[in-house]
Design brief:
Elements lengths: L13 H16 L5 H9 L5 H8 L4 H18 L1 H11 L2 H6 L1 H11 L4 H4 L4 H21 L10 H6 L5 H5 L17 E3 L2 E3 L1 H7 L8 H4 E3 L2 E2 H10 L1 H4 L10 E6 L9 E4 H5 L4 H10 L3 H6 L11 E6 L2 E6 L11 E2 L4 E2 L1 H6 L9 H4 L1 E2 L2 E2 H6 L39 E2 L6 E2 L20 H7 L9 H5 L7 H14 L16 H4 L6 H9 L6 H19 L3 H21 L3
Antiparallel strand pairs: 1-2, 1-6, 3-4, 3-5, 5-6, 7-8, 8-9, 9-10, 11-12, 13-14
Helix pairs in contact: 1-4, 1-5, 3-4, 24-26, 24-28, 27-28
């Protein structure tokens, strides 16, 4: 196969290609939108068809990354010739133009810095070297008595100065701050190690004030990664695993152009406690101590759905959907949002953060997390909320918009609503549902510009055949508002002595049946039956709670009637 004379593969032995491939598998597997990359491997017969089909159908980002890593592992097991062919096919121009990670790898081969990986010992060699070191130290300890204390270094002497007059006279002075964890070189990019400040400068954003928020892993700030890791079982076993680090592909959100992929040794950062970082944290959440000191009534947060707001934007937060900043758990009238997306809806906030700027009953979401009302999942959580089979499913409701229960639902492609077949109007049939489906609410809204203003009498005298969708829309609103199903079913079968008071009973299911069977000729006949439901309610219930419910639903019906018909 003919290659460019400057092809870096010309300078590599098979062993070097294998070693380099082994060290870069994880980095390659983290590439964004790997479809073209997978197709290239498939075209060169470098991936089994069954494995290719499995990975290409995956929609969850993390699952796709794991699947891609499996393909690379399979290639490594195939041996040197397969790996050599792999590098040859992925260093083609059309692939390099699409994937920056492969361009970086090619540059690493061209400038010779890849040889760093050639010098890395195998895990077995490191383990043997460590055991030899421990054995040597034990031999020294057993072979001679340690009679002399080791000489203190100049730094230790200064730090552990014997107390004297000057020491006691300055006992009120503030202790020097510990070295910030992010000042350690714990980030690797393009085969170089950086501190956080060096990395931000490398990304072209040297003026970042809070690097723990700007450096992220899959949209999750480094601050959150560190907090989760400190609470994880692996961190608690840190004393037994001091030489192990958690490696995560993280990036600088603030960097222009494509994200700068690199590795962050999380243990190296989170193992260092700093006064400076805690001061930044306290400064960022100013209200936290005040909220914690208040003995507030937490029963108001017991509901499964909580009202939330951010400035002028309001919505409902569903606890069952909440997993953290990345979970679509807040429902507005038109969309589902993650907490981060919800904050961005308030355009007056230029530096908003979901924990401190989203309020629920006057408390921040940070307060709800501290009180365990909301639980933030770990970054690497694999539950269905953090790693859904189809992320697009999070854009729709989990229960029927009308009856508020789960089951076999049809999802609207225009809004978040979902419906049972029988709950929607018109009733849905699988045979008539197309690829893209819009509910009655969305269809009516999209056609509002075509409506013509009419008088109230003109609407009532209209043939219902031309206003069928308007009537279905009105009925859907009433079904939604009747959450307790007080006006849905036949009252004669559930309310004693009802027929002694009411001579002409009417209920929503009866109106729905008559509408579907085309028993109404004009809009007036339909409206009269709906109004009859609330007239009967007023007569039978008078001033009790059911009478008030009827009055409220009557107001909803009249308001929506005049709104959709644009009566003059």
């Amino acid at each position: 196969m003919n290659r460019d004379p400057m092809d870096p593969l010309d300078f590599l032995t098979e062993e070097e290609m294998m070693k380099f491939f082994h060290c870069k598998k994880t980095e390659i597997s983290c590439m964004e939108e790997p479809h073209t990359f997978l197709n290239q491997l498939r075209d060169h017969n470098l991936v089994p068809e069954k494995l290719y089909q499995k990975v290409i159908k995956m929609k969850c980002k993390e699952k796709k990354q794991n699947g891609l890593y499996q393909i690379l592992e399979w290639l490594e097991k195939e041996g040197g010739q397969s790996v050599k062919l792999f590098w040859t096919c992925v260093f083609k121009n059309h692939i390099l133009q699409k994937y920056s990670v492969l361009r970086l790898l090619q540059n690493t081969l061209l400038d010779g810095s890849f040889r760093f990986y050639m010098e890395l010992p195998d895990a077995e060699e490191r383990s043997k070297s460590k055991q030899d070191s421990i054995r040597t130290k034990k031999d020294k300890v057993n072979g001679q008595a340690w009679t002399r204390k080791r000489k203190k270094s100049t730094e230790e002497t200064e730090e552990r100065e014997e107390p004297g007059p000057s020491a006691f006279s300055n006992h009120n002075q503030k202790k020097p701050a510990k070295k910030d964890a992010l000042s350690y070189k714990s980030i690797q990019s393009q085969d170089r190690w950086f501190t956080a400040s060096e990395f931000e400068k490398f990304a072209g954003k040297e003026n970042i004030r809070n690097r723990k928020q700007s450096i992220c892993y899959q949209s999750t700030p480094l601050q959150k990664l560190i907090e989760d890791h400190r609470q994880s079982p692996s961190a608690k076993r840190h004393d037994d695993q001091k030489n192990q680090n958690i490696q995560l592909p993280v990036s600088s959100f603030e960097a222009p152009g494509p994200p700068l992929l690199h590795w962050c040794l999380l243990d190296s950062v989170s193992s260092v406690e700093t006064e400076g970082s805690s001061e930044v944290h306290e400064e960022e959440w100013k209200l936290e101590e005040e909220e914690d000191s208040e003995a507030g009534d937490l029963t108001q947060f017991n509901a499964f759905a909580l009202p939330v707001s951010c400035g002028a934007v309001s919505g409902i937060l569903y606890k069952s959907r909440f997993a953290g900043s990345w979970s679509k758990s807040i429902r507005t009238e038109e969309h589902w949002f993650t907490p981060e997306e919800f904050v961005r809806q308030e355009l007056t906030l230029t530096d908003g953060h979901w924990k401190k700027d989203i309020l629920c009953h006057g408390k921040t979401l940070n307060y709800l997390v501290k009180k365990n009302i909301l639980r933030v999942h770990l970054v690497l959580c694999q539950c269905h909320l953090c790693c859904p089979d189809d992320p697009l499913d999070q854009d729709n409701d989990d229960v029927c918009f009308i009856c508020n229960s789960a089951g076999n639902l049809v999802l609207c492609d225009e809004c978040p609503r979902a419906f049972h077949h029988q709950c929607h109007l018109p009733v849905l049939q699988e045979t008539t549902l197309g690829g893209d489906w819009m509910c009655t609410f969305c269809v009516l809204k999209s056609n509002q510009g075509l409506w013509i203003r009419m008088t109230n009498e003109g609407v009532l005298n209209s043939l219902i055949s031309g206003k069928m969708m308007h009537c279905e829309y009105l009925l859907l609103h009433l079904y939604k508002a009747d959450a307790l199903r007080v006006f849905t079913q036949d009252p004669t079968s559930t309310v004693p002595k009802y027929t002694r008071v009411i001579s002409k009973p009417m209920w929503l299911d009866r109106v729905k049946t008559k509408l579907q069977n085309k028993e109404y000729k004009t809009v007036r006949e339909f409206v009269n039956d709906v109004r009859l439901i609330f007239q009967n309610c007023h007569i039978f219930n008078k001033d009790n709670e059911f009478g008030k419910m009827g009055a409220r639903l009557s107001e909803i019906f009249e308001r929506e009637f005049h709104s959709i018909f644009k009566t003059q």
